Amino acid sequence: ALELIDFKNALEQFQNLVEKMIIQKTKESSGLYTKDDDEIDYDKFHTTIQTLFGPAVKDQNIQAFFRKIINNPNEKPEWLEIFGCFLGESDGTSSPSKESMVFLESEKQQITHSVVKRKDVLKGIVKVPILHFTVTASQRGVLTVFSKQRKSFFSYSFYFHQDTAWITGCDFLPNLKYVVAVTESTVILWDYKSKERQNNGFVIKPMKNCLLCVSTVTTSGHLAKDTILMGDDKGYVYLLTLMNDDFIMKQSKAEKESQFKFMDSESFNMPKRKLHDDWVVKIRYISALKRFASCSTDSINSFVLDDIKRLEDNLPVKEFSVPKGVNAFTYCGKAKVIVTGG
Asked: What is the CATH number of domain 122-249+257-341?
């Protein structure tokens, strides 16, 4: 009971603090406010909240709440938001449709299989809708395929042993049925269907620059080949086409204690073009637009969207600039927009 009384008292003081901030902000907007010792800035607001509620509130929630009041004092946020809780709006007249919900509880399924060990992180997660499975790649070399069969998940994992190179991205080759992953100096091709523990994949090396991302070019047509796009730390974008015959004609003997056969990168025709002046952090082929897109931390050539033929010629590419570059992007076919994040 005492704790309840103390909380009600703290909440009342908190609401008084918010009212003072709203009055202060309203006066500032009208030019009637003069600064004095009672001015409430962020530091004072943060200290007061911590005194009232202690560790029950997090810094990011305090920042968000303060920002909301400053930006829109006419619509003060609910006090629950200071604890990271948000109230949903509903008129109670209709049940939420399937499209309006992020997740349906009955359709969620947790994968309890441990993909990575301590001090390891996932660097790529790719969904393959046609085959109903998901591919993941960890930084330290664990490649995994989660296959949804008979309403349960089965996983196939492989550990690519490496001394120094870390995996930086992954994708799936739909025609050749291989998992592709890139490290700082190699391209990995894993035959996840193989039941053999030895020689169930290939490594293309050496790559002169550090590879940072990879994406499959999804086009209809040839069933015996796949094309991938790769970006490196020098701003280059590569185009690599792989065929079934390559795995027979271009392979060399596997090195000792290796499960993969090796292929010389010099034996491939691998067009490349410098499109950025900094790291290529993400690349993707957008099949709906029949264009590839790449982004970089480069402030001048930040985002490129063009035909893959531009990688084999010197014609100008369509691009735009963003201060401090672009770190991520996605395409929404329904809205026909590309969204970037810097």
From this structure: 2.130.10.10
